[in-house]
Design a protein that fits this description.
With 349 residues, this protein is of the alpha/beta class. It has 2 domains: 5-138 and 330-346, Glycogen Phosphorylase B (Rossmann fold); 150-327, Glycogen Phosphorylase B (Rossmann fold). It is built from 14 helices and 13 strands. The strands form 2 sheets. The chain has a 7-stranded parallel sheet with strand order 3-2-1-4-5-6-7, with helices on both faces. α1 crosses α14 (330-346) and α7 (177-190) packs across α12. The relative contact order is 0.13.
Length: 349
Amino acid sequence: MALSSNEIEVVAPNLKRRLSGVTATIARLVPLMAREMGVVATGPGLPPDLPHISLLRAATLPRDRWRVWHARRNTEMLLGLALRHVLRRRYRMLFTSASQRQHSAYTRWLISKMDHLIATSEKTASYLARPATVILHGIDTARFCPPTDQAALRARLGLPDATLIGCYGRIRHQKGTDVFIDAMIQIAAAHPQAVGIVMGRATEKHQGYERGLREKVKTAGLSDRILFKPEVTVDEMPAWYQALDLFIAPQRWEGFGLTPIEAMSCGVPVVATRVGAFEELVKHGVTGLLVPPGDPAEMAKATGQLLADPNTLTSMGKSARPDMLTRFQLEREAKAITSVYKDLLDVTL
């Protein structure tokens, strides 16, 4: 049911048509937060059942009360400032940052105009010139859960009865897919039971990169040991984690990165690089192992260490699930953000 203007308290803009991490975050969080407050999204590329208003309506909401404009991109910060200072809409400006690099002068200027900041990790917060509320991303732990019958699941997905090691996400140099391939070539020689799975999509710009990886696997004679699978829809993803024995996150750079916590929520331990928020997500030696980025030898070494010690591998998987339930439930993230909204709306300007 559409909200009336006086019921709308928060507007979350999405100014990008193509699916992205930001779009997925808005799609996950808005329905949960809308149970407690008048939260709506605006912009293209969002699910049709999401609480939503048009950009025109967002720009013409009555000036009778303060509302929150929750931006996650530069374009959204700029639009919010235009609505507030040009069209005189009464928006309190909130920005969530996931970036872990020095911001440009333009971005720093936009951030300086915000009323409050959220950072998706402590490391992200360290790149901001102003204090921020740190709120880690969460996931739907009810959907991302351990399998009830892994053997039957593998059969349904057409996967072999082997030690399955996955690497999921966009296929590109930044994501370190080549590091995973190089590490798996080493692992395959030492662990004949191991099978690697690469699943994801290479955009047009990165299709040559993917072809090179496929050719490298073919040349190594490992086309039946390192499998390339097409990208699946979001609702199918839990099954692909549940089928694994180990997940590898080989990124060279990452803002936050949900794949490790999705895997761990399914009871799958993780070998991840020390980039982005991964050092905050993976408890080294407890729920997985952390290795330097861009180093296939170290990745192969850590992976081989776990494959050679099935008890530790199992123990890490069992530790991972309760850790995700404690720290990374989507409801926790939604509640923390809602608290920030309420604090902003409680401020009298």
